[in-house]
Amino acid sequence: MIAPDRPRRSALYLPASNAKALAKARTLPADVVMLDLEDAVAPEWKAEARAAAVAAVREGGFGPREVAIRANGLDTPWGAEDLAAIATSGADAVVVPKISTPADILACETALAAAPPGLQLWAMIETCTAVGNLFPIATLAASTRLSLWMMGTNDLAKEMRAQLTPDRAAFVAILTQAVCAGRAHGLALLDGVCNEFHDLDRFRAEAAQGLMLGFDGKTVIHPAQIEPCNAVFSPSPAELARAEAIIAAFALPENAGKGAIQVDGKMAELLHLEQARRLVAVAGQIAALA
Predict the structure, then answer these.
(1) Is 115 in contact with 142 (CB distance < 8 Å)?
(2) Which of 70, 183, 255, 257 is 20 to 30 A from 109, alpha carbon to alpha carbon?
(3) Helices (H) and strands (E) in the chain, counts
(4) Which of 172, 70, 71, 178 is nearest to 133 (CA)?
């Protein structure tokens, strides 16, 4: 499945067991709301959280936001029931943690066989085994519901015994590989969370790094992170002006059929025209959401 082309600048995790959080999520400017049944929910509350998530999706009120539900892993006592419930919930996507092999995707596909065709499968890339299987996993986007990858840098750090430093030096190579594999097969890509939700300067720097690496947006764990996240992953006025200038220049009769031209003293090729058109389209989608 090719991911629907829409802004996913910020994707907010919130515990499905928290009624106040569910209500607040309907008012927040996140592009994606993810109702969590996994890490944010204690074992004794799993069933209640599942029911609350399904009820919240059916109740609606999330406006233009995409709504996803994060299930527990298939190897847990709750995973199978989670997928069965999410399949008929009306959610836009199901998020499955700790996807490590192509077989994991196929198992999810089987579990979701009765779900509507539009239900997307979003896989979390957060194990060392997954890093070695990025391209084989990504190829299944052509034949399954798989449409998006979310990076789980916290779990990767745990498995690697690596440190999550401000520059994320231990993870840059992995993030880059994930972007390459995902883009090769039409996947959308969300960067991992920043745990320092009180340090918005660090968050902005991490989000800017994710943008530089090629991610569409970033997962967030606190409402305070949403606005800076949206700002980083939105085209700036200068970028938008440059894109519009490139589009206008290539549209001039004297530039018809040319593969490269000068725009404001800089070289612009057809690949830059393609990028400019996409940036202008994204800006229009963001404006529509607002």
Answers:
(1) no
(2) 183
(3) 12, 10
(4) 178
Return the exposure string of 12-35: e unless at least 16 CB atoms fall within 10 Å of the residue's CB, then b.
bbbbbbbeebbeebeebbbbbbbb
Task: Quote the DSSP letter at residue 71.
Answer: P
What letter represents residue 16's amino acid?
A: A
pTM: 0.93
Q: What is the pLDDT of residues 229-276, one digit of tens each?
A: 999 999 999 999 999 999 999 999 999 999 999 999 999 999 999 999
Measured at the CA of 186, the angle between CA 40 and CA 140, to 5 degrees, comes to: 75
* Residues 147 and 120 sit within 8 Å (Cβ to Cβ): yes
Measured CA distances, 290 to 75, 123, 279 (Å): 40, 28, 17
How many CB atoms are closer than 10 A to CB 208? 15
For residue 59, give both structure tokens. Answer: 């109740």
Least confident of 99-103, 136-140, 285-289: 285-289
CA–CA gap between residue 128 and residue 187 (Å, rounded): 20
Relative orientation angle of helices 79-87 and 102-111, to the nearest 10 degrees = 50
Cα separation, 33 vs 73, in Å, equals 19
> CA dist 166 to 118, 131, 201, 209, Å?
37, 21, 11, 10
Q: Are 193 and 220 in contact (CB under 8 A)?
A: yes
Q: How far apart are CA 260 and CA 270, in angstroms?
A: 6
Q: 234 — phi, psi (to 5°)? A: -100, 145
Which residues, 6+ apart, have CB-to-CB distance to 162 below 8 Å? Answer: 156, 170, 171
Give the Cα separation of 115 and 108 in Å (integer): 11
Quick one: tokens of 142? 């052509």
Closest CA to 223 of 71, 8, 74, 10: 10
